[in-house]
Amino acid sequence: MDYDVAIIGAGWAGFNAAVRARDLGLKVVLVEKGELGGTCLNRGCIPTKTLIHSAKIYHLTKKAYLFGVETPDAQVNFTKIQERKEKIIQQIRQGMQFALKGIDFLNTQAQILSSHELKAQDRVIAAKSIIIATGSRPLELSSLKCDGKKIISSDDILNLKEIPRSLLIIGAGVIGCEFASLFCNLGTQVAIVELMPQLLPGIDREVARKLENIFKKKGIQAHTNSDAKNIDFNNYDLILLSIGRAPETGDLDLEKIGVKLDRGKILIDEYLRTNVADIYAAGDCTAKNMLAHFAAYQGRLAAENIGIPSSLKKSDNQNIPNCIFTDPEIASVGLTEEQAAARGLEIEINRFDFLSSGMARILDETEGFMKIMSEKNTKEILGAAIIGPRATELIGILTIAISSHLTVPRVRDIIFAHPTLSESITDALKENYAV
User: Fold this and answer.
1) 31 with 7: CB under 8 angstroms?
2) Residues 223 and 160 in one domain
3) Number of structural domains found in the chain
4) Do residues 281 and 375 both lie within one domain?
5) Buried (b) or exposed (e) across 361-388, using 16+ Cβ within 10 A?
6) Model confidence over 257-301: pLDDT tens digits?
7) In this structure, is residue 142 part of a structural domain?
8) Domain ends where: 218, 238, 258?
9) In this structure, are 103 and 32 located in the same domain?
10) Strand order through the sheet with 347-353
11) CATH of the domain at 19
């Protein structure tokens, strides 16, 4: 065999699988038809959050007078914002390239010939195992296609040359709501339309309602229970089609080698194995949870199950933090209030409003709250949801608490520094905040 493992796709799943497999002493080849870093680095997490931060800086600058700082002539240079985004992508890509030392990297299309062979760069590569990590692509509607000009995808919008005066976003999922916040902060007139009854379908309903209220205060027109077909597109400079993502598996002809699919997603077991021996899959192509950090986790796990077959590990899909970089940020982990009720669990809910936080007042970011769900009898923390300042960082503490099966009294007794946002967690867990 040429290699111990061949990995197709160099996004967060494939890259982390390759590095972990190499560290386990395996001979690895990593094949990527596009750019190193996949969706997350090139068209997802990194570029969007870079743009979001620039927009946040501009938004803060406009209200700097509240902090005693006069900035009357603050302006946006969108060209420099985009240049900074590209620079950060290049810097991270260079770091990833360096981290691939000892791994053969082929920048080409791969075709799987069998469970132990693939074709790349006009040669057949033999491998004891294969990991498929080909990621995902933006979804389109059969009745509405992106033309790259008036109607654009979440990939297209990252490369705009100028800020649109008006923007209609179809789909109020994570991507849609993040872009709504981003362009609102840059001064665009934004409307967002969602077929479901709430923004961010699937998240805590109370959090979704709070975000909708905040959006309306900011001037974002939020239309839930609405069909985009009823909106006049002529009223907007740009239409962003943001209805989710689909697994990217079409180029591989997996059916020919017997790999089972379900509407494009690769079916895997709890050890990340497909139905074909020695072929694994990780990341968005499995559609288990389309989050970069979960893809990275799956990639490492697949590599470990190949490299250490005597100690197979199951994929833990329970406590995955979900972070949404709107303004304010949203984050959650574990069970939602609705999920706990559906399972018949008796829960207690502890709450804290950021209006009561000294640090939130210092930051002038008092909009929002956190809620922490625990089992009524055992007091074990089961879930948490936050909308407010630094929610995407705060959720890490609660992820550890839930993964470690900590109870409300145990976390409540932890001493956090003052004044910080993190102390809001212990404030929330005081007896007088329980609902």
Assistant:
1) yes
2) yes
3) 3
4) no
5) eeeebbbbbbbbbbbeeebbbbbbbbbb
6) 999 999 899 999 999 999 999 999 999 999 989 999 999 999 999
7) no
8) 238
9) yes
10) 322-324, 329-334, 381-388, 369-375, 347-353
11) 3.50.50.60
Give the integer Cα–Cα distance in Å for 51 and 304.
Answer: 35
Query: Within 10 A of 119 (CB to CB), how many other CB atoms are there?
Result: 15
Whole-number Cα distances in Å, 187 to 163, 221, 237: 8, 14, 14
Q: Which residues pair with 322 in a beta bridge?
A: 332
At residue 320, what are phi and psi to the nearest 5 degrees? Answer: -105, 115
What's 409's domain CATH number? 3.30.390.30
Kindly state whether residue 28 falls inside one of the protein's structural domains.
Answer: yes
Residue ranges of alpha helices (H) inside 132-249 are 174-185, 205-218
Residue with tokens 């302006």: 75
Question: What is the rounded radius of gyration, in angstroms, for the C-alpha atoms of the chain?
Answer: 23
Q: Among the three residues 195, 222, 238, which one is the final residue of a domain in this structure?
A: 238
Write the burial class of residue 333 (CB in 10 Å: 0-12 exposed, 13-18 middle, 19+ buried). Answer: buried
In a domain, 127, yes or no: yes
Q: Distance between CA 147 and CA 422 in Å, rounded? A: 45
Same domain membership, residue 184 and residue 54: no
Residue length, the chain? 435
Of the residues 53, 116, 293, 418, only one is catalytic, namely: 418
Pair 347, 412 in one domain: yes
Residue 433: predicted pLDDT: 52
pLDDT at 317: 80
Statement: residue 99 has pLDDT above 70? yes
**Does 122 have pLDDT greater than 90?**
no
Domain residues for the domain of 340 are 328-433
Distance CA 180, CA 327 (A): 9
What are φ and ψ of residue 313, in 5° steps?
A: -115, 140
- By C-alpha distance, which of 243, 393, 219 is closest to 323? 393
Nearest to 237 by CA among 122, 132, 304, 149: 149
Tokens 């074709």 identify what position?
Answer: 119
What are the φ/ψ torsions at residue 40 (nearest 5 degrees)?
-55, -50
Share of the chain above pLDDT 70, in %: 99
Residue 223 is among the residues annotated as catalytic for this protein = no
- Is 17 in the same domain as 127? yes
10 and 120 co-located in one domain: yes
Query: Would 323 be classed as within a structural domain?
Result: no
Read off the DSSP letter of residue 418: S
Residue identified by tokens 């959050």 is 49
DSSP SS3 for 114: strand
Helices 292-307/12-23 angle, 10° precision: 30
Same domain? 120 vs 233:
no
Burial class (CB in 10 A: 0-12, 13-18, 19+), 80: exposed
